[in-house]
Specification:
The chain is of the alpha/beta class.
Length: 283
């Protein structure tokens, strides 16, 4: 039987709890758990000093660093590497899936203080086997192209690729693979300090210039790569066809020759400007 108020009416719930000695201020366990899971609702002076209260209460390990943070740290580490460190890092790199089928990574080859830097797309089967870029039929054509403008592999010329591991079946490197290898290419440019960069093929153009259009639309233009060191000069960039493409499309060899001739004019202008800017030799 429910007790009645002195006036004869039934007691309220709060009065009934008071009569049997229970406080109406009790909270259910679920409510307290919710309060712990949302400490931001507490006044500042009462908030737990925890970066993640739920993780701390549950005894869980903190979440791993975000991929963007890890990529930034990797890029910063590569940006400070010497040539020897760069070689070891590329050889041990497991940052993308291209490492799974490679025989060896291919950093590049040539004069480490070259004025000319040629950048291709990625190693092929022969490059993967020998550890040097452009050694197959496409490499022979590149050597002929260099000779046509009075250059020679290894003498004032450095040759690199947008990616350092062979893509399966010699396919074109994908955007994510190019982006993963980009810090290595950027460090190579910073160490070489070339006066001119020639990009061989669309993937190479993508690596340095981004998605800026078709290769045909990039030909005939002069782009610039930002100075890789404080106080340096921006580097002229020329885009032309990849030698492997030229082997399949012979009529476009004439267009590639036009690109090389323009690159040679730009190089002569860059060398003349550098000579004028150099301090005079002591008498």
């Amino acid at each position: 039987m429910i007790a009645n108020k002195p006036s004869g009416g039934p007691l309220t719930r709060a009065q009934l709890l008071h009569e049997i000695g229970l406080s109406p201020q009790w909270q259910l366990r679920e409510q307290r758990a919710v309060a712990l899971a949302a400490p931001a609702t507490l006044p500042d002076e009462r908030r737990p000093a925890l970066a993640n209260p739920i993780t701390a209460i549950a005894g869980l390990a903190p979440a791993p660093a975000a991929p963007a943070v890890m990529a930034s740290a990797r890029s910063q580490a590569i940006a400070g590497m010497s040539w020897e460190q760069l070689q070891h890092s590329v050889a041990a790199c497991r940052a993308c899936t291209l490492c799974q089928q490679r025989r060896q990574a291919v950093l590049g080859v040539g004069d480490l203080a070259a004025d000319w830097l040629f950048i291709g797309e990625g190693p092929g089967a022969e490059e993967d086997a020998r550890g040097e870029p452009f050694v197959g039929p496409a490499g022979q054509l590149l050597d002929a192209m260099l000779a046509a403008i009075d250059l020679q592999r290894g003498e004032d010329v450095y040759i690199a690729n947008a990616v350092k591991c062979r893509p399966p079946n010699n396919r074109t490197p994908e955007a994510a693979e190019i982006a993963t290898c980009a810090p290595y290419l950027q460090r190579q440019i910073a160490l070489i300090q070339p006066r001119l960069i020639v990009l061989l093929g669309r993937a190479a153009a993508h690596a340095l210039l981004g998605e800026v259009g078709s290769l045909a639309s990039l030909r005939g233009q002069t782009f610039t790569y930002p100075a890789p060191q404080a106080g340096g000069h921006a580097i002229p960039v020329v885009v032309t066809y990849h030698p492997a493409y030229l082997l399949r499309t012979l009529p476009d060899k004439a267009k590639a020759w036009e690109d090389l001739c323009r690159a040679r004019r730009l190089m002569r202008a860059a060398q003349a400007a550098a000579a004028q800017a150099a301090p005079p030799l002591p008498a």
